[in-house]
Amino acid sequence: MSGSRAPLGVAVLGTAFMGRAHSAAWRNVGAVFDDVPAVAMRVLCGADPARTERAARSLGWQEASTDWRAVLERDDIDVVDICTPGHLHAEMAIAALEAGKHVLIEKPLALDLEQAERMVAAAERASGASMVGFNYRRVPALALARELIAAGRIGRVRSIRAAYLQDWLADPAAPMTWRLRAETAGSGALGDLGSHVVDQIRALTGSAVVGVRGALRTFEPERRGSDGPERVTVDDAAWALLDLDGGATASLEVSRVAVGRKNALQLEVHGTDGALAFDLERLNELTVTQGRDGWPARLLVTEAEHPHLSGWWPPGHALGWDSTFVMQAAELLRAIERGTPPSPSFADGLAVQRVLDAIERSAAVDGARIGLPGHDETPTETSQR
Amino acid sequence: MSGSRAPLGVAVLGTAFMGRAHSAAWRNVGAVFDDVPAVAMRVLCGADPARTERAARSLGWQEASTDWRAVLERDDIDVVDICTPGHLHAEMAIAALEAGKHVLIEKPLALDLEQAERMVAAAERASGASMVGFNYRRVPALALARELIAAGRIGRVRSIRAAYLQDWLADPAAPMTWRLRAETAGSGALGDLGSHVVDQIRALTGSAVVGVRGALRTFEPERRGSDGPERVTVDDAAWALLDLDGGATASLEVSRVAVGRKNALQLEVHGTDGALAFDLERLNELTVTQGRDGWPARLLVTEAEHPHLSGWWPPGHALGWDSTFVMQAAELLRAIERGTPPSPSFADGLAVQRVLDAIERSAAVDGARIGLPGHDETPTETSQR
Amino acid sequence: MSGSRAPLGVAVLGTAFMGRAHSAAWRNVGAVFDDVPAVAMRVLCGADPARTERAARSLGWQEASTDWRAVLERDDIDVVDICTPGHLHAEMAIAALEAGKHVLIEKPLALDLEQAERMVAAAERASGASMVGFNYRRVPALALARELIAAGRIGRVRSIRAAYLQDWLADPAAPMTWRLRAETAGSGALGDLGSHVVDQIRALTGSAVVGVRGALRTFEPERRGSDGPERVTVDDAAWALLDLDGGATASLEVSRVAVGRKNALQLEVHGTDGALAFDLERLNELTVTQGRDGWPARLLVTEAEHPHLSGWWPPGHALGWDSTFVMQAAELLRAIERGTPPSPSFADGLAVQRVLDAIERSAAVDGARIGLPGHDETPTETSQR
Amino acid sequence: MSGSRAPLGVAVLGTAFMGRAHSAAWRNVGAVFDDVPAVAMRVLCGADPARTERAARSLGWQEASTDWRAVLERDDIDVVDICTPGHLHAEMAIAALEAGKHVLIEKPLALDLEQAERMVAAAERASGASMVGFNYRRVPALALARELIAAGRIGRVRSIRAAYLQDWLADPAAPMTWRLRAETAGSGALGDLGSHVVDQIRALTGSAVVGVRGALRTFEPERRGSDGPERVTVDDAAWALLDLDGGATASLEVSRVAVGRKNALQLEVHGTDGALAFDLERLNELTVTQGRDGWPARLLVTEAEHPHLSGWWPPGHALGWDSTFVMQAAELLRAIERGTPPSPSFADGLAVQRVLDAIERSAAVDGARIGLPGHDETPTETSQR
Predict the structure, then answer these.
(1) CB-CB contact of B342 with B335 (8 Å)
(2) Sign of CA dihedral A68, A74, A77, A79
(3) For strand D285-290 and strand D274-279, is the pairing parallel, antiparallel, or unpaired?
(4) Which of B163, B321, C320, D14 is the most exposed place for a label (fewest CB within 10 A)?
């Protein structure tokens, strides 16, 4: 691929919210971290020519394109970063891998298990690195949580209490959108929010999910469409109980109708000798209880000794949500340079989807437990520093 | 019973933790509230003569007794307040009701459904009032929560996220006790902590539970007994999902091994137009979100306009856990004077036990849903002021 | 005085808010603590016969009286507890001490320094114990803070940041009352709230105040009286900076117009090796930072190993504001039994008033520092357990 | 200056912490905001050639230079952004203004009042825009606070309780540095932290400071230098009370030895009809109490309707500390395009320094009040959107 000193050429596919967040990552990664290979922001790909042109200019790209297949053929593109809607993921990722590119893809990996399995197979065959964008793995407070658990600082994990609560659908009068149709969105709160929760449960514990019980609710079965009332075919909220192969039990609750919660990914981990708590609404903080007689201490995870933080600012300076994409890009670049697989892998993405699929199947049989024998693989290790 | 102006004679059965807490309630209720009938603290009953004698003196009782049946025969006893271990509840409560007494009984109502059903039947036949001691109904912040929900201030309730987390069993080396044997304790965290949670879910919403999914865990299957390792036969933690007849879904998690949590009864209620949150570790506070665009406001529920607070102190003066027993006694006394049934009733206690029983049965079938058609009755109304 | 086994006879002077709070303390102290001498609640004294009679009955007193001088002559009264308005303090306390009684008196000790000095002199001459009612010394979290500081757990104290914020006068349209006239109230926020703050600063550090800088503000110089606008002659808010003889600096801010704060006595202590923080609105909590690299941990001060808590409830059960009076009564009773002086002493009350007086004098000279050489005595030790 | 469509050429002077933070702002401002003129990152200036070269490359600059005077002469440089140590500020800023450039300068404006006055005079004479870098004015939560106050949402402001607490000097064994010598650092905590606090007090209220009382402390008078113990000649902590021309009183406390506080700029504003509270350690939150009977509500200031947030991410996505520099750059660019003076101006910087100077003078006369008649000018308006 690229010569050892030339910068790695990057293309981002997608110009919407995620395309912008990933563009910011590529624009800043070299300024923050001095241990990553240089990158060149070559091409931004989008569907609409004028919009893509404008976005490319403001976001710092050298070129705009509306032909992603042509981009894959370019020799000066080393990394393809896929930020398009989920139904395009499988086709684009497999083509990029087959073209010998390194691939970063936004979560969820794919719309269904069949697609996801084909993508994992393609990744296994490919020469390039492949990575799925569970960006919350790079929240320094969550990375610190993972370190503390791995180091045994809270003992053996017994239980996890997890939720991801938002409120943007709380209004019963909120109109119908493509996000509320199963055929376009695949899933509702479970897929959108639950995927992050399941990934965190796996990453924090290093354990696979071996059994699930689940339930789904659609609180507003009909919403106002352009032609009158329309049926909502995805869930507004979901609940699950997960058995982990390390012996822990995790509860999960996700909702898009939890009034007053904007972005509350809440994780509480209880071990035999301590506990941890986190809320994404306060993403620079981790609450740590050490020892069975310990008390919850509030850490500002903004110090140089904390994971991911060496390249940023002096102590006490809070990072924003968008910083996680910078650290994600850095992890991919380091993996490419080292020639080791980045984490989380496509296989991690598939494992998460298998769990979500099992939750849906359990919900369909009134919540009875569904086993995942040998299917949910051990999470890949995440590089932290 | 007692003449209209003579004080009501009270007897408490039980001298341990709950006997002390209830004694404090009878000692203080007349000083706090000026709208309740006068009481005379006649007899404290216990098993051990010397211990009962000492306790009676220090706790303010006129007499001590070790013969609870004799106490039931006395004409100067109007109210019998039962604070003994659960296996004595049914016998004592039924006898007291048959003797024409008003009966207050600590939760849980009974050890099993059969006993509880007999007690409810006795209560229905009896001339005296009967009440079960879910004292958290009298936490002013929870009483305010109930008022706000009933007044429609958060719209229609969609979901409740509830937990009761403690940590006193977190140590794997903690020894075996009678509380960890099914035959003496009946149940573990589910019965002890879950009963409070289920009662609150019913009381806050005014809805009956019509279906449950449940799971139980015993994290430490063996603990050190006096003769070597002994099998733990109750749960350390439990999870459930409850369907309410009003259409809401409630999740429940209870644990005795949640390191760093001492007494964390946490309730979060999400409605179509607002939300409420409470944590017993901060019992004078209620977090209220009003309106779909509202933000969580922290109320100190210590103001004169808040429920139960007229009789206490000026604004801003926090109450303690023990105050709930004073307000519980006041509610019973007002009901006796009015001749109306106090709340929560024995039937409420039975309804809670039916839910807990269904959770255990669901757990035994891998979490599949168990319906409670027509069995979990509508919660009784709680007097607030 | 009383024979060694007879209960100590108690009289309370005053039937209003403080008379009720102190009555509750005497009613409950023997039930909570088993290491204190028995008491008999003999007489409640008040000005209005009917009101005093009613209050005596509901609060648990054997008798009511309107003649406090007659009460002082009774042989069956050992303890006189003075809860009357401040302008009666000096006369009543000196008479009670001269009659050989033990005296507990609500803060502030007196209306002015001259009265306070006479009271201290009377206390020094007297055979009975004397104690001033700074009840917040008995908040378990503050007692724990004092222990941790005395044990060197946060190193040498460098600074204290203290405030006491309330909002009951925030409304500019709130009417005139006797509390806003210097001749009846003596002082405003400074005397009412600042006295608690200064007492805590002295008690927590064990240091005397040797210099002050102060400022006062009356935000609403006129308020509506019964005969039209009337001049407010006390402060609504005050600020001070205190030099302590141990080398620390303490800042103080008190206000009655701080909207949203009901009873916010906030103390933050920074040492060379740790820090502590407390807020009376969450009186069961103490935030403890241990070590220079430590993080703030939130302790629930509700455990048996915490000060004052052995006699109360099992772990995790919050106490209320009124419990502090029970522990204050217990401290006085233990001191009487041991024959040692209780703490805080009348001299502590005088020392606090000297600091407040110096703050007023500093405010009158535009905030320039006023020294207190040799006048503010070392705080007395507080018994904790 | 630059043609209407050519990008504005930017030079940053300084390659250390602030140089990096400002470089990130210029790198990202065009991607975040679509309403600002385009910029070209022309030159990064530093003292060390190799270091500057490396920094320029990683931070996204076209060129590196070690000759700032030569940079001022270039026609393709429109904006000069000064991030050098304070003793270079006056010379560089005046030269840049005289060269017709727009100037952004890091706070503090200058080392002393004489320099600051000359800079303000130069700014008044200059054709270019001038702005001082009080970046916290762009924290969305603080910008929202300013809007709410200006709109009268908390009534008339009565008092502000402000602090800025850090702990990096808490260790008595921490070694001597240039920051602790008056000749190199100018001032200690007062200048470094107090300048932000005073700027916020002025900006939030729109009021000038007309009187101050102050006190300074150096807790560790000597620290270990390279040649043995050395005298510390700046303050470790400072306190002040400020009179504002709108009638409010503000208290200020700053410290570098407050163990457990990393970056705690805390502001609490009390008005006649509400209150606001902020802590930089939770920079995405504002606590708002509206109405005299209101309760403190916690707002996540991450919504599109909040100031500065239109260009960022969807609701609920937290920003980091570094985002404030992006918004600061945007404000300067918009002002240049509109031809209106940006805010905060050099005059604001001078006004802040006059207040700090008066605090030092008050401290030298034992805290007596120093008036600032006619010297502290009315704060300039801050553009918010």
Answers:
(1) yes
(2) positive
(3) antiparallel
(4) C320
Q: Which residue ranges in chain D fall short of pLDDT 50?
A: 1-3
User: What average pLDDT is seen over chain B?
Assistant: 94
Tell me whether residue A110 is in a domain.
yes
Report pLDDT digits (tens) over C335-381.
999 999 999 999 999 999 999 999 999 999 999 999 997 667 788 87
* Chains touching A, CB cut-off 8 Å, 3+ pairs: B, C, D
CA-CA-CA-CA torsion sign (D229, D231, D236, D237) = positive
User: Which residue out of B295, B299, B301, B305 would a mutagenesis test of the D interface target, given it has the greatest number of D Cβ atoms within 10 Å?
Assistant: B295
Shortest CB distance from B31 goes to which of C23, C262, C302? Answer: C23
Of A109-113, A134-138, B304-308, B354-358, the least confident: B304-308
Is residue B115 included in any domain, yes or no?
A: yes
D171 touching C (Cβ < 8 Å):
yes
Q: Are residues B41 and B189 in the same domain?
A: no
Please tell me the total number of residues recorded for chain A in this structure.
385
Q: Same structural domain for residues D122 and D201?
A: no
- Position C382 scores a pLDDT of 67
- Could you tell me which of B251, B19, C155, B345 has the C-alpha nearest to residue A250? B251
Is A322 part of a structural domain of the chain? no
D21 touches chain A (CB under 8 A): yes
Give the containing element (helix H, strand E) for C223.
Answer: strand C222-225
Question: Is A230 part of a structural domain of the chain?
Answer: yes
- Neighbors of chain B with 3 or more C-beta pairs under 8 Å: A, C, D
The shortest C-alpha distance from B296 to chain A (Å) reads 6
Nearest to C239 by CA among D370, D252, D266: D252
Instruction: State whether residue B17 is helix, strand or coil.
Output: helix
| Distance (Å, whole) CA D248 – CA D245 | 7
Q: What is the CATH number of the domain that holds A30?
A: 3.40.50.720
Could you tell me if A172 lies within 8 Å of chain B, comparing CB atoms? yes
Asked if residue C224 and residue C116 are part of one domain, the reply reads no
pLDDT of residue B384: 57
C315 close to A (CB below 8 A):
no
Domains: count for chain A = 2
C121 and C198 fall within a common domain: no
Same domain, C152 and C42: no
Q: What is the pLDDT of residues A54-72, one digit of tens each?
A: 999 999 999 999 999 999 9
ipTM of the complex: 0.95
Report the greatest alpha carbon distance in chain D: 61
Residue D317 to residue A319, Cβ atoms within 8 A: no
Domain stops at, among B79, B94, B128: B128
- What length does chain B have? 385
What is the domain extent for residue B144?
139-319+326-371
Helix (H) or strand (E) holding C72: helix C68-73
Q: Looking at the structure, do residues A203 and A162 belong to the same domain, yes or no?
A: yes
| A164 contacts A193 by C-beta, under 8 angstroms | yes
Is C241's CB within 8 Å of D237's CB?
no
| Distant-in-sequence contacts of C182-186, Cβ < 8 A, 24+ apart | C182/C233, C182/C234, C183/C233, C184/C87, C185/C234, C186/C86, C186/C108, C186/C111, C186/C112, C186/C234
Please identify, among D80, D109, D128, the residue that sits at the C-terminal boundary of a domain: D128
Evaluate if residue C309 carries a pLDDT over 90: no
C288 touching A (Cβ < 8 Å): yes
Helical (H) or strand (E) element with D336: helix D323-338
How many of the other CB atoms lie within 10 Å of CB of C42?
22
**What are the phi and psi torsion angles at C233 (to 5°)?**
-115, 15
CATH of residue D175: 3.30.360.10
Kindly state whether residues C43 and C68 are assigned to the same domain.
yes
Q: C296 and C177, same structural domain?
A: yes
What is the strand order of the sheet B8-13 is part of?
A: B63-65, B39-45, B8-13, B79-82, B102-106, B130-133
